[in-house]
Amino acid sequence: MHIVIIGNGIAGITTARHIRKLSDYKVTVISSESEYFFSRTALMYIYMGHLKFEHTQPYENWFWKKNKIDLVFDRVTDINTENQSLSLQSGKLIGYDKLVLALGSTPRPLPTLGAELKGVQSLYSKQDLELLEDTKGIKQAVIIGGGLIGIELAEMLHSRGVHVTLAVREKQYWDIVLPPEEAEMVGKHIISRGIDLRLNTTVESINGSSKVESVTLGTGEVLECQFAGATIGVVPNIKFIENTAIATNRGILVDELLQTNVKNMYAIGDCAEIKQPTKGRRAIEAVWYTGRIMGESLAQTLCGTPTPYNPGIWFNSAKFVDLEYQTYGDVPAKIDGDLTSMFWSEEKPERGLRIVYEKATMKVRGFNALGLRLRHELCDEWIATGKTIDFVLENLEALNFDPEFYKKFASQVTSQFKTLA
Amino acid sequence: MNRLGTVLVVLGFSIFLAIPFLTTHTLTKSIITKEFNSDEKTTIATKAFEPVIEKTVSTWQLLSATGKAITEVNETAIANYSFSTENITRLENLAHNNSLNAKSIEALWGKENFKVIAFKNYGNWLFGREFGSDAELESNIKQVTDNIAQYEVIPKKGIDKYAAKSLKYNLAKHSITGLLHTNALLFLLLTFGLAVIGGLLMLQSYMAEKPGIKNNGTFFHPAKSRKWLGIIIGTLLISFYVLLYFFPEYMVGWIRLTDSISYKLSGSEAGQFFLYGFMYTVSMLVMGARMLAKYRHNNYQLIRTGSVMFFQTIFAFLIPEILVRLNQPYFDFKNAWPLDYDFFFDFELNKLIAGGNLGMFMLVWGITFSLIAVPIFTYFYGKRWYCSWVCGCGGLAETVGDPFRQLSDKSLRAWKIERYMIYSVLVFAVVMTIGVLYTYFTGASELLGINTFSMRQVYGAFIGAGFSGVVGTGFYPVMGNRVWCRFGCPLAAYMGIVQKFKSRFKITTNGGQCISCGNCSTYCEMGIDVRAYAQRGENIVRASCVGCGVCAAVCPRGVLKLENDSNTNRVNTANFVRK
Q1: Is the CB of A321 less than 8 angstroms away from the CB of B221?
Q2: Which of B294, B559, B578, B579 to mutate to test the interface with A (most CBs of A within 10 A)?
Q3: Which of A296, A253, A256 lies closest to A271 in space, CA to CA?
Q4: Whole-angstrom Cα distance, residue A390 to residue A392?
Q5: Taking the C-alpha atoms of B7, B13, B17 and B23 in order, what is their torsion angle to the nearest 10 degrees?
Q6: A24-50: burial string, b at 16+ Cβ within 10 Å, e else
Q7: Is the pLDDT of residue B404 over 80?
């Protein structure tokens, strides 16, 4: 049995590692991005000088040979689903018994005029990071779009002394995900860190002859800049399979066993679109751990134990410059219907906590934490077992995952909520 | 502010480095008389010192003259007190006549003669002996006379290796004159003073930024990423340690600067280890302040750093000096065996036993601390309570060494080497201690055929000075700030075993939140691949973890937490990652 995986990101590599744990099938991983697996989430730290590229590699280079995982540093140009083979850019042909597509995402193209100018780019791949070194010595940058990559790119450039304007279309930063209070807090934090955050701001055009020279905002204001970040989100990276028999919608459509419509072919990670997501989950979730869990599940399936993909209760985390964010369960941007919530925050230290629960049953449904850390295991367990808000408030200290000697928050949160109630 | 600070630090260090070259000496007859300590030697030495006496000379000139004087004294001693060729012929003649015995040699040179007394001690096995051949006779007598020259004449009538060392140091230290001598306090301010003020001004760069993790540009920095400045710092540190342990006579100018402080504290002049302790403490305080500024958002780091600064200043530096002033034994109450490897050496034990009630208390304290308190505290809090809260080596690593923490090797190979090395040192330390105690109580100089004195000498030179000092600190800018703690410290090894198998301490991994970014592993000074555990959703229980808490601090996703929980199921965690 020869299993070929296209893509050496977290999804593809996890699949490979777990297949090796479970079987002695031949495993080949093909990537045109990098020779060895690295953590994409850490690219920003290389630019900022926190890490070197080698530090972003979770396994030493000898690991792959020792575990008989063949790495091929090449680009797949064509998939022949009939005779189950792949054509590579180098001219090589690789046959497979099972094919795993772990193609990842690609930045959503900026529809703005001038997006093709030099100095306009996003940050997704290792090549993007290398290209970003062209920003050496620049003075101003405008980042268009306020998601997680937008703020990362802003923080990166700011760390090298570049004046950064972050142009965000929405009323509040990331308010399609964050409830108003959190969005406002994060927005204030970003501004306090020296980034020029512009809310309610659209971009009319990017200007320049060959290189970007300025950005014109919707208001007509022209911002001089030598770099424009295009960070309006990512989309599944499925361009090169568009004209094949593989069924796609926004991503590659897969069932709960991560199978595509084509025999012996699977899709995982950012590029996969789950036809019927489990409760509380979306069809495409381009986050690190879902790629990992898909890889873990698919390896089981491929090695003889059909295992449906079940990521469990939603969670995620991020860091907005210095402000950490964790979320567990359901915390919609707009909390209404049968859900209600309590929000507590303070300015020094800068932190906040939201607890979402069902109006009728008082059962807890989700948590948002800013500037403080919560214990994943307990949040998950309390949501799964339907603990009530009273129980949560009474036992809040148990959720605290902050380092030792940090100012405690449980009693403050509890007393504020009790006075409100 | 930051620029001014940098200028002051560079200036302070430059003046410091210039001091050995600025130091001048004027040797007087009275200094020679005092240091040579015998009329005979003084006369010879004074003659040998003729070209430099009462003249202003550099340390190098002085020490080269001292070397010549010592050679002169020794050559004269050999000429006057050991057996000449003619003497040896006489001894051979006696032996030929079967009359080589105490009486006959006394008759030759007199009963009270130095040679005669020595020969009776060293050569009595020859008395009355028959020799197979002339050659055998000659070689036997030669062996005895050579031994006498080496073990009697040189130490008693000349200057042996150990005496030469302290003689060189004392002559150099006590003959300092000129600018440095009369303005020692000014130079103290121009070196330490400027460096300290400059260092504190440089903190402005941290304070100007908002609280939070400050690692921007670490791997672009010339000192923090094995670039030119790192190499320079490493070279200076290594040179400093080599001088400190092996050639202190060249550091007398620096030592002179700290005399006034030493007099205030202990009432006696400064020696090389006072200078070292002073520099160590001052550097730890300044770089500790840097740590406090850098991590001012993180209470764990604030309290922990405050703790190492406190223990170094009060327990390692001030209390021992004040004890000396009070005529009590010099003692560091927070030092624990086997890091404190000479705690059980005869001279240490004798010193404490002779130290009255307080000395006895120190002896009992030291033993209780090392053998009972250390494992108990480690059970409750992990070895961090010592390594990153109390220990002096750890304190230096956590403050002065913090800028270099990311340089530790995280490879599996390094971990393998680490385990071989650190446990070998532990075994060596334990065997050596058993050996010296055996010698102490039985008087036998050998244990299982190994001389316990040479065992402790080898340990002192290679582990105590070479490893913990020269390599341990000198290699900060190359191998990270915990080289000694990770590869060599026997106390860390001992607590590591307790931590691994019987402790409540662990680093908890927060479910499935890890994104494998690698900040934790990179900034782990002990070279633990923290990410390898975190990305598996597994808690971290490692013998080497010193609990500095930086992995948890640099984690951008709130994944890691240092905890004292329970001793059972420490590694297991919730099932967010498939094993």
Answers
A1: no
A2: B578
A3: A253
A4: 5
A5: 100
A6: ebebbbbbbbbebbbbbbbbbbbbbbb
A7: yes
Which 8-state DSSP code applies to residue B210? P
Distance from C-alpha of A277 to C-alpha of B203, rounded to nearest angstrom: 52
What are the structural domains of chain B?
28-174 (no CATH), 503-564 (3.30.70.20)
Residues of chain A with Cβ-Cβ distance to B215 below 8 Å are 45, 48-50
Is B551 within 8 Å of B410 (Cβ atoms)? Answer: no
Of the candidates B297, B517, B558, the beta carbon closest to that of A45 is on: B517
φ, ψ for residue A175 (rounded to 5)?
Answer: -75, 0
Of B82, B87, B93, B85, the C-alpha closest to B134 is: B93
Q: Please compute, for residue A344, the number of CA atoms within 13 A of its CA located in the half-sphere on the CB side.
A: 19
How is residue B149 written in tokens? 């020259």
Domains and CATH numbers, chain A: 2-106+235-302 (3.50.50.60), 120-232 (3.50.50.60), 315-420 (3.30.390.30)
- Mean pLDDT (chain A, rounded): 96
Q: Is the ipTM of this complex over 0.90?
A: yes
- Nearest residue on chain A to B556, alpha-carbon basis: A319
Determine the 3-state secondary structure of B134 from DSSP.
Answer: helix
The pLDDT-based confidence of B138 (bands split at 50, 70, 90) is confident
Amino acid (1-letter code) at residue A369: A
Using the Cβ of A405 and the Cβ atoms of chain B, whether some distance falls under 8 Å is answered with yes
Question: What is the Cα–Cα distance from A105 to A202, expressed in whole angstroms?
Answer: 24
pLDDT at B111: 86
